[in-house]
Structure formats: C-alpha cells, structure tokens
C-alpha cells in the first residue's frame, strides 16, 4: 500500500515546517466530523491499513461529542482531548437541492464551526490543522482546469454560495494565522467524494450515493430510475478511502499553507450518465432510466487540476472508479439497515 509506505517514510524523516523541524510523533489527532463519510474513511486507514504510528492517539468526534457551532462545546471537547493535531472535517453539508433551499444556514453554521475549531486550536497550541474545503467553492465563471490559485477569483455558483463562502474563509483564516502566529494550518480540496458511510438520502445525499439508493430501490420495486437533470454534467469523483489516505499524508507531510486539490486527473472526469452506467452494472439493474431535464443540472463541469498533487505524489494509486463504485454499492446493499438513507 503506497499510502502507508509514505506514512512510515514520513515518520523517519519528520515533517519540516517552513524552515523549522516539527517533530511528527507521538501525535494526538482530533478528527472533527469523524463519524461522516470522510471521517469513517480516515478511521479505516488509521485502524486497518497501518495509518496509525506507534504512540499516536486518534480521536474521532461526531456532533454528539460536541456541537461545534457552539464555542463553549468546542472548547470543552478540545480541553477534554488536548490534541496536538486536528483534521477538521465537520461541516453542515448536503446535496444540490438542499443547498439551494438553505444557503443562509449553510453560511452561518459553517462560518461558526470553522471559526470555533480554528480559533480553539490556536488558543490550545495545536501544531497543525488540516481542514477540508470542496471543489464546489471555486468561481462559477472560470477557465478550466481550475487550480488552487483560483479559489477567490470570482463568485461561486449561486446554488451553494452560502457553503462556498464559508469554506473559502477557512483559506483566508489559515493565511492569517500563519501571518500573525506562524501556525501551520492548511486545507485540502477534494472533488466529489463517495464511499461507504456516505449520505445515501435520495433528496439530500450526494449525487453518486443518491443515485445508488434510487437504483437499488427501483430494482427492488421493479420501477424505472428517475435521474434529476440531463445526465450531462461532468464530475471528478474521489473514493473516500483514497481521500482518507491523502489527508493523512497531508497531516504528516504537506508543508504549505496554500491548499492542495485532491482529485483524480482531468482525463478521469465522467458524466452523470456514465456514472449511472457504472451504478446500474454494479447493482445489476436492468430497468429503464429517465433523465428529468426540467430539473436543474447545477454546474455543468468544474474540472480541477491535480497537477500540484502529482508534483508531490506522482505515483499515488487512485482506486479505479468502476471498482470503487462496485465496493460502495456492495457496502450499501450489505449495510442498508445502518446506511444514511
Ligand atoms: N462528500 C463530498 O463530496 C465532499 C466533497 C468535498 C469536500 N467535502 C468536505 O469534507 C468534509 C467531510 O464531509 P463528509 O462528506 O464526510 O460529510 P458527512 O458524511 O455529512 O459528515 C459530516 C460530519 O460533520 C459532523 N457535523 C456536522 N455538523 C456538526 C456540528 N454542528 N458539530 C459537530 N459536528 C458536526 C457530522 O457529525 P454527525 O455524524 O454527528 O452528524 C459528521 O461527522 C466536509 O468538510 C465537507 O465539506 C465533502
């Protein structure tokens, strides 16, 4: 496994921070949003793939441990665990249609969560924070491929401007903490994530997982699948376990304050229609598929460049999409009772 090989290599080398040597371990890593799609993937890599090094402690939080919108609860949970490192994943997240209905709350809750986590990390002397941005925060009107330098170059798509502006402020805040205090707080920008423990809700889930649930339901009920929109928009999808491996690499090795895009290559971008083909094969669905073109497509594409990632990790092996969709569908069917539907 290349990722865990990288992790072990990083232990012997230490992580160099802008001129000074930062000792890697033993770390006490607090993962906010540890019960979600990405958090569960990191937990898997830490516990099952040798991602955790000797002497380290990893704590995975859910909203039950602390509501991070509340500064008092945020401070209390940091006091309890006294982390040296933080992976900040917690966010109010949702699918396209939920964002369109609720931009104000996506803005306010995420601004509060992010400020509470970053400021508390600062106050408690946390050495490194890796936060999670999203490729949907990039400007709507832009040139492609999008890269890390273009985050603030124009308004995000109107469908999710609340969430996007809150996420963009993490990057601004990271640079301010570095300028004022020299802190190494950085961010990663994944494209569309999917995998076990995703939100498979048909209304509010992410596109792939919602389509998996719709297709599974249609197969059971012998009906057609209704896909929202034309199926034409194109997306880069990243399997949650690949993302988990990359985030752990970033925590140990990535020295920049500027964010880094975590994505498969531009050549691996596929249309929703193509993704649907892979899902129907994985679930062995033989019924009809109807594309409802009266519904919004959202952004037609948001092709992101992974050139920076490839400069750091030229050989990182992304799981082939077909394989990752099959594993996610298998997980969903086997865990239907506990899956978020
Ligand atoms: N999924 C994607 O396609 C995608 C793409 C790009 C970036 N991201 C980013 O990746 C990160 C993780 O996303 P995900 O897909 O793993 O989301 P998810 O599965 O919905 O998980 C969200 C996590 O945040 C926690 N959370 C939500 N509100 C909270 C609050 N007020 N206080 C404390 N914890 C709270 C949830 O806890 P509970 O389980 O207790 O609710 C859960 O652990 C997010 O920052 C997201 O913006 C995701």
UniProtKB/TrEMBL annotation:
This is GDP-L-fucose synthase. One of its GO terms (molecular function) is isomerase activity. The lineage of its organism: Eukaryota, Metazoa, Chordata, Craniata, Vertebrata. Belongs to the NAD(P)-dependent epimerase/dehydratase family. Fucose synthase subfamily. Residues 29-265 form the NAD-dependent epimerase/dehydratase domain. Pfam families: Epimerase (PF01370). It is an enzyme of class 1 (oxidoreductase). The keyword rRNA-binding does not apply. Keywords: Isomerase, NADP, Oxidoreductase. The keyword Isomerase applies. GO terms for biological process: 'de novo' GDP-L-fucose biosynthetic process.
